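Treating backbone geometry as a discrete language has practical consequences that deserve illustration. No coordinates are needed to read the tokens, only the vocabulary itself. For completeness, the protein is quoted in full, as a sequence line and a line of structure tokens:
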Amino acid sequence: MVTDRPSLTAQRAAIYRAAHQLVDIPPVFGDPLALRIVGAHAESELRAGREPRAAPQAASLRAFIAARSRYAEDRFADAFDHGLRQYVVLGAGLDTFAYRGRFEHVRVFEVDHPATQGWKRQRLGETAIAIPESVVYAPVDFEQETVREGLARAGFDFARPAFFAWLGVTPYLTRNAIMATLGTIAMATRPGSEIVFDFATPQGEQDRGRTWRLTLAARLGSIGEPLNSSLAPTELEADVGALGFSGSEVADSDALNALYFDGRTDGLVLRGGHIMRAWVG
């Protein structure tokens, strides 16, 4: 991303989540703050039907952005039942988990680039979304420092396990930055900790959606937020094991469709996408 401005892709992902609340009924991922957090202008465009992310052509990406949020929060619900009370949002963007009050007595650490984090806090004020006392902001540039350094400054309790949600971030990072962050989490957190993250996969010449992805990559590069990595699922599972995670699993589009889109009558379905869950100890 351009270092002195907030992430444009964070804003776009938030608009996809907001559009999902209006046009995909029932929503796979319900977020009562999604329309407010994007701001009055974007909300107005969505409600008027002028926003392209609400169009049928955007349905597959809209579905994946909803599915990855739902999957992460479903996995955290399981972790919460087993006693986890620290939730870390890596690359928080305009994520609203911390402000919806779904889980009591959970300390939420929002980790993001300083420019994006400052913009989000301004947006929260503009939209009158209250910031709970349980929220802690930790500014970190993933390419320049470790997540451990940022969390240590923010008062994260390394003696207790935590859940990490890392959504819509890894494709924009280098492989070295991704592995450094995963390695930090594997080695610095307590047994019982987990991470959920989505990732881009390598595309072959005949892969479905290849032309669309090349077009998207060119568009993102033109705004200064290029795609920088793709990870093969089987190799990634070996990598996270070598980094110190005790286990992992990958949910591909078939698995996610079975979980969240089976039986829908509106045609909303995933046509790609991978999410990994990995755990410590």
About this structure: The beta strands are 86-90, 107-112, 135-139, 163-166, 194-199, 247-252, 274-279. The chain has one domain: 8-279.
